[in-house]
Write a structure and sequence with these properties.
single chain, three-stranded antiparallel beta sheet, 15 helices, binds coenzyme A
Amino acid sequence: MTTVVDTGLEDVVVAETDISLVDGAAGRLLYRGYEIGDLVRGRDGGTFEQVVELLLDGEWPADASLPPSHLTAGVVQALRAIPAESAPLDALRTAISAWGAGARLPWPPTPSQVRELLALAPAAVGAFARLRAGQEPVAEIPEKLGAAGRLLYAISGEEPDPGATRGLEAYFISAAEHGFNASTFTCRVIISTRSDLASAVCGAIGALKGPLHGGAPTGVEGQLAEIGTLENAEPWIRAALARGERIMGFGHRVYRTGDPRAAALREVAQELAGDSDWMRLAVGVEEVALRLLKEHKPDRQLPTNVDYYAAAVLQGVGLDPDLYPAAFAVARISGWGAHALEQAEKGRLIRPSATYVGPERRDLA
Ligand code: COA
């Protein structure tokens, strides 16, 4: 039998899943059969928490909410112990690690463990954002708020603006789940060893931290800040491409024709930011980038990806750019959780092979 080495695993199918359909060729994404665009635009007023239950359970619930967002003393202590200049994703990973050590979660993972983590995560990110600014974590987060509202409240300590909450919630829905991406696969590998959910989510956050996965919205924000004006877009992008750099927010491993999340988030960003200078720059730079990328790689489709307009929404919501990856992780805990449940139920230990190409046997002497 000939062995095919597939280093990026694109053509390797390791499981059957009924959580989401990522149809790259058609530019479609379905969560349990529902179109992502409908969910993000909130056509029926659906919330992120309903999407969470849909992902965990398979059916659209009439209503959904999270348990209280309570930070244990161990979590707050861990957050105080890390340097203020740590990446917020590292802070979230540390908080979940400290929480998991105290919770000693049993295997297999359960939906209520996922909900607990989803309640913890926004509070932990907000607490870190406050601690690094020399403020104390908020004492209590109103339970009536969803995960998006809780994140905003945990950062500011004030009742969040409904428009900003809605914008962040739309982003959370768009970021909740995306098939067998690198972080989800990492989560499933860890669960497949019968390790606990907190460990799996910590590992998944590690995978998400890479700039090719979860770091892109921050990259987009920095890129637009550097470009600065629409006139500068063409020379800036040409120079970046000539240096062999990648333009953040474009191209996708799976969506070759278009990313359905980008289209829906663009609408949300436009609602939120209206005719702001930043939004006008984002729309203008997108046009120039698409044209120049086509010229640069005529044989390759490099469409706008979700992170381009995610950056616009997150900027409109008023989040610090370095919190974007942590916001992504908070949302994605739902998808990781759904996959953890599925892996525990149907999967087996994931253990691929490699073709050895090192030296033949040799002697030490
Ligand atoms: N800007 C410039 N060139 C790009 C590019 C981009 N955004 N995305 C891909 N390319 C080029 C690569 O440089 C490569 O060129 P080469 O064949 O001359 O080396 C070619 O297209 C294929 O790239 P490859 O990395 O094999 O494609 P991929 O399918 O693995 O890439 C991404 C997917 C997302 C990693 C890639 O498009 C990228 O790095 N985009 C920018 C980061 C980003 O927005 N990430 C968020 C994803 S949601």
